[in-house]
């Protein structure tokens, strides 16, 4: 009887609730990132520290890495509230790191790309959620392509070939579009299995983090593409 209860399908209501919690937390994280980035872009002292003190920017980067590692490794054993706070702290640090976009791009340009990215992200997520075909096997290929792209992106900073860099930008957009659809489908599968699992809160946070990173990377790549 216990085994039978464990494999009982989760109701659509519980699945939808799980997905809504993931997307809501991700949206709150994005809002915090945007507000912090806008605030910091108007703080002259912060800008001076960011661009004249290399250790300051490096420290922000290290803190972001530490938070992602801690969340990924401990999210299932932490309380949902603590995990969510760490995620929101990471979102705030990302906002500080993204302050420079307000110095490179106009507010209108950022706003337009934000709307475009949101539309692409929403449609792509819906495709991943409603798509009947299982994308699990595609995930391995997507991650291999992503790894190759990251290596080429790093090399592109060492060898400045404008046409090659431009092509990499659009390849990156395609990769994160595919990754968004894949993550959305995997999250739906998780929602179908966990029900009232004790680790549900942690899974909401890690799901929000994955979608948040997909969105941020997609936004930055599309913003860069808009500048040509």
How does this model look, in words?
- This protein is mostly helical and 228 residues long.
- It has helices at 2-6, 12-41, 44-52, 54-74, 80-97, 101-104, 107-130, 136-158, 162-194, 200-225.
- Helix 2 (12-41) packs antiparallel against helix 9 and helix 4 (54-74) runs antiparallel to helix 5.
- The chain has one domain.
- The protein contains ten helices and no strands.
Class per helix and strand makeup: mainly alpha
Biggest β-sheet: count, sense, barrel? none
> Secondary-structure element sequence?
HHHHHHHHHH
Distance between the termini: 63 Å
- Please bin the fraction of helical residues: over 70%
Overall average residue pLDDT: 84
Radius of gyration: 19 Å
Strand content: under 5%
- The backbone outline, from C-alpha atoms, is globular
Oligomeric form:
single chain
Count of helical segments? 10
The unreliable regions are 1-7
For the secondary structure, the number of strands is: 0
Count of individual domains: 1
Describe the structure in brief:
This protein is mainly alpha-helical and 228 residues long. The chain is 85% helix and 0% strand. The chain is globular, with a radius of gyration of 19 Å.
Describe the SSE topology.
Layout lengths: L1 H5 L5 H30 L2 H9 L1 H21 L5 H18 L3 H4 L2 H24 L5 H23 L3 H33 L5 H26 L3
Helix pairs in contact: 2-5, 2-9, 2-10, 4-5, 5-10, 7-9, 7-10, 8-9, 9-10
């Amino acid at each position: 009887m216990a085994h039978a209860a464990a494999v009982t399908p989760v109701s659509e209501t519980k699945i939808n609730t799980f997905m809504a919690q993931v997307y809501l937390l991700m949206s709150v994280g994005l809002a915090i990132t945007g507000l912090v980035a806008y605030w910091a872009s108007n703080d002259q002292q912060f800008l001076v520290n960011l661009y004249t003190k290399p250790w300051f920017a490096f420290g922000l980067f290290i803190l972001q890495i530490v938070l992602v590692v801690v969340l990924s490794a401990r999210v299932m054993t932490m309380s949902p509230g603590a995990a969510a706070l760490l995620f929101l702290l990471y979102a705030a640090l990302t906002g500080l790191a993204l302050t420079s976009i307000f110095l490179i791009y106009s507010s209108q340009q950022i706003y337009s790309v934000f709307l475009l990215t949101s539309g692409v992200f929403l449609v792509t997520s819906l495709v991943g959620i409603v798509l009947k075909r299982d994308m699990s096997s595609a995930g391995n290929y997507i991650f291999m392509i992503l790894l190759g792209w990251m290596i080429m992106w790093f090399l592109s900073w060492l060898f400045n070939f404008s046409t090659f860099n431009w092509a990499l930008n659009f390849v990156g957009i395609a990769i994160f579009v595919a990754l968004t659809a894949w993550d959305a489908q995997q999250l739906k599968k998780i929602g179908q299995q966990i029900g009232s699992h004790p680790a549900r809160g942690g899974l909401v946070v890690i799901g929000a983090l994955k979608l948040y990173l997909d969105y941020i990377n997609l936004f930055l790549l599309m913003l860069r593409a808009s500048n040509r």
